[in-house]
Amino acid sequence: MLDVGKWPIFALCPQEELKLIRQASVLGSTGNEALYVTRNDEVFALGSNCSGCLGIGDLQSTVEPRRLDILCGEKITCLSYGSGPHVIAATSDGEVYTWGHNAYGQLGNGTTSHCFVPCQISTNLINKIVTEVACGSHHTMVLTSDGEGYTWGYNNSGQVGSGSIANQPIPRRVTGCLQNKIAVNIACGQMCSMAVVEIYVWGYNGNGQLGLGNSGNQPTPCRIAALEGIRVQRVACGYAHTLVLTDEGRLYAWGANSYGQLGTGNRSSQSYTVPITVDKDRIIEIAACHTTHTSAAKTQSSQVYMWGQCRGQSITLRFLTHVTCTDDVFACFATPAVTWRLLSVEADYHLTVAQSIKKEFDNPDNADLRFLVDGKYIHVHKVLLKIRCEHFQSVLNNNNDEIIEISEFSYPVYRAFLEYLYTDSIRLPPEDAIGNWKQHNHLEKLMLNFTILQL
């Protein structure tokens, strides 16, 4: 179980309060602000409150946690922050809230005025379900359930991918090469953006962080040719470097390397993709954060490595740590001590059976089957599919394949169908499900029925 007390900002909280925390995020360029969610879905904030990033309605610092009434009960699923700082959060319903610094329109509300309380953003996102959020220094990106990326904010280096360098005060879909692509993951560096389709990159490239083999900025999405044919699963961005994890558990890195954050054994920056080996073990998770020069990875054998900036030192080769998760790397070694994602503090033994099963959807750690749809993998468990769905009882009996390719359905529809079997809920706009319906097809009829049940 994660211990939020490892982050210095939480030393201000009494132990009784720490025991109630279910989710947490340590923000900003100093690690002096924090937001957390309690077990009953109340949201609190504390810290120095630069630019109103705590969302408490004013600019006052506070060592006493203050409640964010607007977000209480909203069930936050993901959160990210920029260097301003500004903050973006998405809820289980796919709604988006932003607050904090806004001089470049990074809050997406059409203005450049700072916002001291969370404000829901709906422009161009109506009927869209946001599943992932990411912030650069002063720009913002979200991913929707149908695989579309939307960006807004500062654009001096093309980081919003619009083709110009004009700032963008409201969300707009990233098109160009991504027009007909389905993204499954996004990430932002300080002034660049990335989407996993294969992998497309855009924005600032002065340190080669786009991996294109040069240092020229890229105002629209561009595919990394060096990774053609390689199935990318996740991308993570540091301040000016990039990590990529493939479906086979291999790691690639590129970009700035002044602290050894690429893990190549030296401090020479790289504008081309470089394969990084971690003791020949399969990597299942990578981590980086755009406010640090630190990298981390977790292997299939649960070993956690770090490299890059480490409390003022430069670690140029992968260092085997004593910690058990990549989150702890950023609490113990990174400067500042921040979080690279929204922390989930809930211990497994506190989860219900339903919650435990929900956590395992599309989790590659112990899945025994992968569906390949639109070139992307979905990780599942045969026994659960057979228990939950009559269709899979016949399909999977006596089937020892580890990969099943699906060609008749789109990735969002098939993923939503499988997710329903784990969660009993649909994360798919009804028009997408109905639009993919085909007569006499058992699976599509199931998908349609599941969607109607949710209306």
TrEMBL record:
Keywords attached to this Swiss-Prot or TrEMBL record, sorted alphabetically, are:
Repeat
SUPFAM superfamilies assigned: POZ domain, RCC1/BLIP-II
- The BTB domain is annotated at 367-430
Return the RCC repeat spans: 94-146, 147-199, 197-248, 249-300
Query: Is Zinc given among the entry's keywords?
Result: no
Record InterPro entries: BTB/POZ_dom (IPR000210), RCC1-like_dom (IPR058923), RCC1/BLIP-II (IPR009091), Reg_chr_condens (IPR000408), Signaling_Regulatory_Domain (IPR051625), SKP1/BTB/POZ_sf (IPR011333)
Identify this protein by name. Answer: BTB domain-containing protein
User: What organism is this sequence from?
Assistant: Phrynocephalus forsythii
